[in-house]
Amino acid sequence: MTLTLQNPLDMHLHLREGAMLDSVLPFTAQAFSAALVMPNLKTPITTTDLALAYKKQILESATKSGYTDFMPFMSIFLTPSLDKNELQKAKLNGIRILKLYPKGATTGSENGVSEILDDKTLEVFALAQKLGFILSIHGESNGFCMDREFEFLRVFKHIATNFPELRIIIEHMSDRRSLEVIESYENLYATLTLHHISMNLDDVCGGMLNPHHFCKPMLKTKKDQQALLQAALNAHPKVSFGSDSAPHLESAKLSPKGAAGIFSAPVLLPALAQLFEEHNKLENLQAFVSDRAFGIYGLDSANIPQKSVRLVREPSIVPSKINIPFHNMGDIVPLFADKILQWRLD
Ligand code: DOR
Ligand code: ZN
């Protein structure tokens, strides 16, 4: 049995730089036509020039590994000092996504915004709205870790109400209470990861601690997982797939300051096919991994590499580790390492 997906899109992806980029990019480039690349590098992508240089790096890396049919969509990191002219320039250069991290909320968010609703930030939102940007937000408060997304919903509601023409994305939606909010506000949308629909907090610390399942926002309750899974299985009209695949070296994951992030890129489409098949919803996978994003982000398929991705229903084993050969940097442990999946990429 086979399954063919047209132009899969990953609308939330961490690719990193240098040797790490070279090692992780092929997993995405072989399975997706395009991906929205996050700007939280060590030197965050805060300007158009940095974004264009990063795009060039990504395209060169893809070409080196034989993929000339992959398109990175670039995003700009919203810092408190973001210059208005910079936004205009970004727009002229085809960049349409502005990414907001609350300061300190997650990996690489040190340069994020601490006063999200202050006048200066609201001015940036106004200009973003005028220029037709999409505002992608890592929506977490600094409260109790299981309630952070819920507590942040008031900020989403405030921005959505005050900027009705601005499309706003709740990135990596993790809490079932967010679903009601995207359903009540016309200009609010969300991305959903594989890990938040296939796991819950028990998979992090219900047995032995599993640092490879530690991410931000944290995996939540079974009820949250189930509600989010239903949204994915039914290809919720306001939800796009965004993996939030976030590679960290195994040494960083296992260190006492364990890094947040799940490296899911090597398993995404086979694991999603398995999950959708288990729930008799395979017919909705195309909409979840591609069609919804075309609508929500207003993408034009003429500007995206055309890709038919074939999956075969045959068991495949997920590698234990992905080695980064450059100067023996170390390994990255993928999601579902050593597990058998029922589908594989052709
Ligand atoms: O778990 C996460 N890892 N969440 C994020 O928001 C960032 C990401 C990363 O960059 O490692
Ligand atoms: Zn992310």
Task: Walk me through this protein's architecture.
Helix 3 runs parallel beside helix 4. Strand 8, helix 6 and strand 9 form a beta-alpha-beta unit. The protein has a single domain, classed as Metal-dependent hydrolases (TIM Barrel, Alpha-Beta Barrel), CATH 3.20.20. It has 12 helices and 16 strands. It is of the alpha/beta class and 346 residues long. The strands form 5 sheets. Strands 5-6-7-8-9-10 form a 6-stranded parallel beta sheet. It has a 3-stranded antiparallel beta sheet with strand order 1-11-16, covered by helices on one side. The N and C termini lie close together (11 Å). Bound molecules: (4S)-2,6-dioxohexahydropyrimidine-4-carboxylic acid and zinc ion. (4S)-2,6-dioxohexahydropyrimidine-4-carboxylic acid binds next to loops.
Mean pLDDT: 97
User: In one word, what is the shape?
Assistant: globular
CATH superfamily: Metal-dependent hydrolases
CATH architecture: Alpha-Beta Barrel
Quickly count the domains: 1
Write down the CATH class: Alpha Beta
Number of strands: 16
What share of the residues does DSSP label as strand, in percent? Answer: 15-25%
Rg estimate, integer Å: 19 Å
**What class, by secondary structure content?**
alpha/beta
Write out the distinct hetero groups bound to the structure.
(4S)-2,6-dioxohexahydropyrimidine-4-carboxylic acid, zinc ion
Largest sheet: 6 strands, parallel
H-E order:
EEHEHEEHEHEHEHEHHHEHHHEEEEEE
How is the CATH topology named? TIM Barrel
